[in-house]
Structures are given as structure tokens and as C-alpha cells.
Write a structure and sequence with these properties.
This protein has 361 residues and is an alpha/beta fold. β4, α6 and β5 form a beta-alpha-beta unit. The two termini are 21 Å apart.
Amino acid sequence: MAKKFLANGLPVLIGSLPLRDHAEGVGLVFKYTPEVPLWIQLPAYREEGMVAQFQPGFPGLTLKTDKSFVDTSAPSFDDDILNFYEEYMAVSEGESGIEDSIFAIKPDAARGFFSFVEHLSSLSDHPYAIKGQITGPITFGLGLTDQNGKAIFYDEQLRDIAVKLLAQKARWQVKKLLSFESPVIIFFDEPALAGFGSSAMISVSRDEVATCFKEVVGAVHDEGGLAGIHVCANADWSLILESDADIISFDAYSFFDKLMLYPVHVKQFIESGGILAWGIVPTLNSDDIEEATVESLVTRWEAQSTALEALGFDKTAILAQTFITPACGTGSLPLDLANKVLFLTRQVSDTLRQKYGFETY
């Protein structure tokens, strides 16, 4: 973006809600976060699962008894790969449009996106920004397997296909959403990164992760969007802070202290204009949600931001580079608790913005 983008303490949601009605979900989004709305995912539908939603278009994709996998033994698999790369090259080089390609997200996989776009079309004013999301390449690559149950991430060619598929689907989102003349943000959701460095991911190298991020984040930037990486647990934050992401989305309620184990990286990220999507509203534990109040979470944010003041930033500047968010999506919560999370996100943002002198939109 030519102009520096500021988050200004506005509230933003993470994609999932515990509903079955997409129109109802759109209504909640615009009730609580009209300045930076997003399209919603309803995991009550199998096709809107984290990996399932973005796997259409993958060569050899097979569905049997409600389980998806990549069948590398299929007679047509080599031809499927060739066709994938031919279409990828045609789209990348501008020989054919992405709108009609295998990279276009279809309504049967993402009804929330199309309900969202329909609502955006009815607005008289442009939102401050618009958010989309997609499963990140690490989580996607470890979640989708071949016919033998082996994660595709461990096959170099299949990993490359996954990264290119996701990069182009992210590009497609940016292109569609930029038509509404607001800045567009795409979050790459990466819960699997919580396992990086553990025995479960011992054979996944730092360079492999960094290379994946470079390609998908670069695709968003090339199309004119802002890119975020969302991890709703602890992670090797240096790896994420060193990426080209514009926004780091994290569970500040439970893991702020873990992020601050990397003070040099955090300082450099903020100094470079990076934005923290500060997941100050709890989502992991029902008791935490029930006990949380606007006042307790505002106090928590102010205490946490004091650690950034020690790095040389004042609270107003910190809030200017902060989105207030839930720690994670609410798709697995009871509806009453999900509604409370959305309410708290809005109210904590409003309270902080008023206290530190930010204008009301």
C-alpha cells in the first residue's frame, strides 16, 4: 500500500461462528465490526472446515466416505499435475483470468464469502478496510494427506502445489474485495505452527516454513492487499515476525508473555509499521469468557502494552498499530458465549479508542 495503514484500535473478528445461517452471520459481523468486516466460515458445514474449504482444485483430490485425500496413485494424477501447472502459469502470466480459473473460490465451498459480498454491494459507505482469510500453507499441508495418510507437506512437489493453490486463492479474494474500494486484509490461519519445533514437526525446517510464507504473502502484496498471519496458540514468534506479513494475529489473553520472549523482533516489527491483531478477548476456555468483562480486558491490554512501552513506544502509538480481536474463532463455542466474545471485542475497542483519543467512524 502506498499509504501507511493504521489499525487505530478497531475491532476485527476471526472467521468462524457457531451458526448454520450465513445471513445471520453477516448480520453479526456488521453489528459488531462494520469498520473492518469479514466473511464468515461456519464449521457446522463439512465443506467449510479449515482444510476442506480451500482444497478444491488440488490435483488428485478424492472424497470417500466424507474423507478427502490426494490420490497420487490415480492413473490421471500426472496429467492432473500438468494441467494444474499449466493453468497456474496462464493465470500468473496474465494469459487467462483468475476469475474463471480453478483458483476461484466457489459458492458451494464458501457461502459466507458470497453472502458477505452481496451485503457489501448494498452499502452506501466504504468500510475502513475489508478482511478475508484462508488456511495457511503449513496447516493446510499438514492437514491434507495422500491415500496412505501421509501429509502432503512432506512431499516437495505436493507442498509446492499447495502453496501455489493457496497463494492464488488469496489473490482471488484480494481482487474480488478490492472492487469495494477499501484496503483489503487477508489472514493466513496457521494453528499448526503451534507445533513447530516439537517432535510432531521435527522434520519441518525453518527455511521450508519461511519459503511457504514468502510465496503466499507475496501473492497478497502483488495484488495490492495486506497480509496477516494468525496463530491462536504459542509459536516460534521470531519465525512469524521475520516474515513479510503486515499483521501478526495472536492469542494475547493466554500467550502475550510468550510473544515478548522476542522483544527485538517485536520492536523491529512495530518500527517497520507492522500491526498486532491483539487477541485480548478469550475464546479457549468457557470459564475465562464467562468471567471476562470489558473493564478486566481493558486493564489487561493496558498492562500488556506497558511491556511495549519499555521498548520505546507510547500507548497511543501502540493502539494505532493494534486491532482488538478475539484470541481465535468462535466456531466451536456455544452461541451465547460466541455472542459475548463479539460484544467484548467491540466494547474493549470502543473503550480504548475513546480513552486514547481516536475518532469514532
